[in-house]
């Protein structure tokens, strides 16, 4: 199957810069092309046969619909209706790209299956027996460090971790939608993934389920299928999991990881939790998991400055240095 072709049509500096941004963030199975000048549109589309047209001219939206062509209008209205074929233009290019895939996933009948030649995928998990308020920032900082040298995907299997608030995301699509998409149409995995994928300058991420009950409904074959598809069809070199509960799905993920960082406190109750967790790991059926566990005890202290965006501090700051030092000690 060939690449999906996305044509950005417009004469403004905005569409020129948007095209450059989308080309930078486009996955290997998407080709982003540009057409400047409305008089050239017909000849351009006949020549390249795009699957999607992203444009800023309302006149193009009024043209006769074609079966295999999806038109998306770059609107100046922020409150776009859910079923409208338009996207708010004044937002990050990577977010516009995600919404393009979201719209394409809903409306296209085209399947996309490609196999990327990629190195063996490595996975790391984070878990805190009894919970720890620094589990999210610690794992996000770790993803930031790893993202300096390789392509990283961050997946969150936690209840109410605060991730949506941290990243200031209002989008409702999340890990539950990814699993549901795999169950329904495995052959459309890449399109489904792109529709729920968000990006930072260091790593990509999928938001955790809004409903905690979804975490307990993830089946063993769901995760097996997801891991297989990520390895076969994406270029990610490292997957980082934030596991908030020790349910069946989390245990399955941890047993597939090279390392499981267990975050704990130095307090009396922190030691109690560690002891109980270690007793659990002594069970014969948990031998595989026991060998992967590495304990870390992060201390926020004065690592976070008041009045400065927390997410930016997790990308670069004292806390990141602490995480890097602690993880290096565990190797």
**Number of folding domains?**
2
Strand order of the largest sheet: 8-9-7-10-6-11-12
Distance between the termini: 41 Å
| Major β-sheet profile | 7 strands, mixed
Rg, Å, rounded: 22 Å
Structural classification: alpha/beta
Task: Provide mean pLDDT, rounded.
Answer: 84
How many DSSP E strands? 12
Number of helices: 14
The CATH first-level class of the largest domain comes to: Alpha Beta
CATH architecture descriptor name of the largest domain: 3-Layer(aba) Sandwich
Order of helices and strands, N to C? EHEHEHEEHEHEHHHEEHEHEHHEHH
CATH topology of the largest domain: Rossmann fold
Helix share, percent: 40-55%
Shape: elongated
Strand content: 15-25%
InterPro entries: P-loop_NTPase (IPR027417)
Question: Overview of this structure, please?
Answer:
The chain has 331 residues and is an alpha/beta fold. The protein folds into two domains: 4-107, Rossmann fold; 122-330, Rossmann fold (3-Layer(aba) Sandwich). Helices cover 40% and strands 18% of the residues. It has 14 helices and twelve strands. It has helices at 13-25, 41-48, 58-61, 93-107, 135-146, 163-166, 175-184, 189-196, 220-233, 248-256, 268-281, 287-290, 310-315, 318-330, and strands spanning 4-9, 30-35, 52-55, 70-75, 86-88, 122-127, 152-157, 197-199, 204-206, 238-243, 259-263, 293-296. The protein starts with a strand and ends with a helix. 34% of the residues are buried. InterPro entries: P-loop_NTPase.
